[in-house]
Design a protein that fits this description.
Blueprint (H helix, E strand, L loop, with lengths): L4 E4 L13 H8 L36 E6 L7 E5 L2 E3 L9 E12 L2 E5 L2 H8 L3 H12 L9 E6 L31 H12 L4 E6 L23 H17 L6 E3 L17 H18 L6 E8 L3 H9 L2 H4 L4 E5 L11 H10 L4 E6 L14 H15 L4 E6 L1 E3 L15 E4 L4 E4 L1 H10 L7 E7 L4 E7 L5 E7 L5 E7 L2 E7 L3 E6 L1
Parallel strand pairs: 5-20, 6-7, 6-13, 7-8, 8-9, 9-10, 10-11, 11-12, 14-15
Antiparallel strand pairs: 1-16, 2-3, 2-22, 4-21, 5-17, 15-16, 17-18, 18-19, 19-22, 20-21
Helix pairs in contact: 2-4, 3-4, 5-6, 6-7, 10-11
């Protein structure tokens, strides 16, 4: 088995992955977090997180912790590999490599993990045989057989990952009487409904606009940036309300909406520029009041929805204005600030969380750019995800949303040629699915960290190991350990005078249920 799992089309019934991967998925079926045997209980009221009054979860220690691993150059894909054993240990030495856990200190509460249900993903899925369509849906959204996605994003109108540009109203229709989501009924809405049906009531979906209609903008173009004309603030807000209403009629109730995808990006595809002041004014004078007037005050309003680099500046302008801040539930962030050749600016997330603890932070988009079919087996794909997810979780995000859940063998469809990777790549001519290691690495988080989980205090004493740990609503701990080095690392989990020996294989991501 390689980093990219390959599924061949077959007329017979298949589960998630065919051939050699079937053993992996049998094990994955068993990997759900089950309540452990009652053991030591720890609880401490650690106060508030993101402005919500959160209930402290009591820890129920598992007597035989179980480790699940995905590792390079092995057949391990979220596979149970080791059973750990607790032993008494008061004071570790400096020479003892440890992960230190303290469930009495609990932080943000997790909403969920997921990916974007775009036009491209929906159109690609529709081109697959029915059994492979089912495999994709089960792989992501089945809480037992898959990796437990329960969160998602979709595009309002076209984006780069659409086959062509489109809007929901006719040209210059200032009455919005022509508004229709008929375009979405063919591919995108059916995909969303399939995800909803698989997850059930716990599925949360937010939607993001890439651009207003050309006639509402100062550049008279839905592409190449431009700005929303101030005289259309109210009308554009009404347009977004109509989208919420139209999706409700389709049986899809949105959990949230973002103001604008990447409001500082002037792109060759659908885009619209908002300075911080412009986004602030549109929120407090347009979209915020419109949501409340129409009874949608419970829909989460997400601002920014762009990279970590300008996140602190955007947060200051938006959240220091009480008339705008009262409408903002959270700030979305992407990972593409590395376009400049610099490293990810993870600390900006932590600094914004510290400055504005009553505002939720969530990761709303990331993918590996510049698709190359010959690189779908590259292990670095998943390691980029692990590094980003671990840092952002430890810095306070409450939800994680990947970009496209599925793309074809070209890294599309994409109407401007901005082809990218997705965790699952479908080779349409060959009727095959390739599960890149990004799928498995994301699953090491999404399958074991459940909705309602809270991050706990967890640290390591070696920089070669990264860790993020959560206590689930059932009281079990899920500790995710990342080893990006070329060597196996033996270490111990230490918790309240006990420790348990474990091993992080070279280039691996492990989740241990403790």
């Amino acid at each position: 088995m390689q980093a990219s799992q390959k599924m061949q089309f077959s007329h017979r019934s298949i589960n998630l992955i065919a051939g050699a991967a079937s053993t992996v998925m049998t094990l994955l079926l068993m990997a759900g977090c089950q309540p452990g045997n009652p053991g030591q209980n720890f609880s401490k009221n650690s106060g508030r997180a993101q402005g919500d009054s959160l209930t402290t979860i009591t820890y129920h220690q598992k007597q035989a912790p179980l480790q699940y691993t995905t590792a390079k150059n092995t057949a391990l894909r979220i596979t149970p590999t080791d059973t750990l054993r607790w032993e008494a240990k008061d004071q570790p030495l400096e020479t003892d490599i440890c992960v230190f856990l303290d469930p009495s200190h609990q932080f943000q509460q997790i909403i969920g993990f997921g990916g974007a249900l775009t036009d491209a993903s929906a159109e690609t899925l529709a081109k697959l045989p029915e059994n492979l369509q089912d495999s994709v849906i089960n792989a992501y959204y089945d809480p037992n057989e898959g990796i437990g996605y329960n969160f998602g994003r979709t595009n309002i109108g076209s984006c780069d990952f659409s086959s062509a540009s489109y809007m929901y109203v006719a040209e210059n229709d200032t009455t919005l009487s022509s508004f229709s989501v008929a375009h979405d009924q063919k591919f995108k809405i059916p995909l969303i409904k399939r995800a909803m049906a698989k997850v059930g009531k716990d599925f949360n979906l937010f939607a993001s606009p890439w651009t207003p209609p050309a006639w509402m903008k100062d550049n008279h173009n839905i592409l190449h940036g431009g700005h929303l004309l101030t005289k259309y603030y109210g009308l554009w807000a009404d347009y977004l309300i109509k989208f919420i209403q139209a999706y409700h009629k389709e049986g899809i109730d949105l959990w949230g909406i973002s103001v604008q995808n990447e409001p500082m990006a002037n792109q060759t595809w659908e885009s619209c520029i908002y300075t911080a002041e412009q986004e602030r004014d549109f929120i407090k004078n347009g979209l915020g009041p419109a949501l409340h007037k129409n009874g949608y005050q419970d829909i989460k309003l997400i601002a920014w929805d762009h990279n970590r680099d300008l996140l602190p500046q955007r947060a200051s302008v938006l959240l220091n204005d009480p008339e705008a801040a009262k409408y903002i539930w959270g700030l979305g962030l992407h990972w593409y600030e590395t376009w400049s050749g610099t490293k990810p600016l993870y600390e900006n997330v932590q600094k914004v969380q510290a400055a504005f603890p009553n505002t939720h932070l969530l990761f709303t988009e990331g993918c590996q750019e510049k698709f190359d079919y010959s690189k779908i087996n590259d292990w670095a794909l998943g390691e980029r995800y692990a590094d980003n997810i671990l840092h952002d979780l430890n810095n306070g995000i409450t939800a994680y949303c990947d970009w496209n859940i599925l793309l074809d063998q070209t890294g599309g469809p994409n109407h401007v040629g901005n082809f990218c990777f997705a965790p699952i790549i479908a080779n349409i001519p060959q009727k095959e699915l390739h599960f890149t290691n990004a799928f498995w690495y994301i699953g090491q988080f999404s399958k074991f960290i459940h909705k309602g989980a809270r991050r706990i205090s967890s640290t390591t004493n070696r920089s070669d190991l990264q860790v993020s740990s959560f206590i689930n609503p059932d009281g079990t701990l899920a500790s995710v350990v990342f080893n990006q080095t070329d060597k196996d690392i033996s270490f111990h989990f230490w918790l309240n005078g006990q420790w348990a020996a474990a091993k992080a294989r070279a280039h691996s991501l492990s989740t241990v249920l403790l």
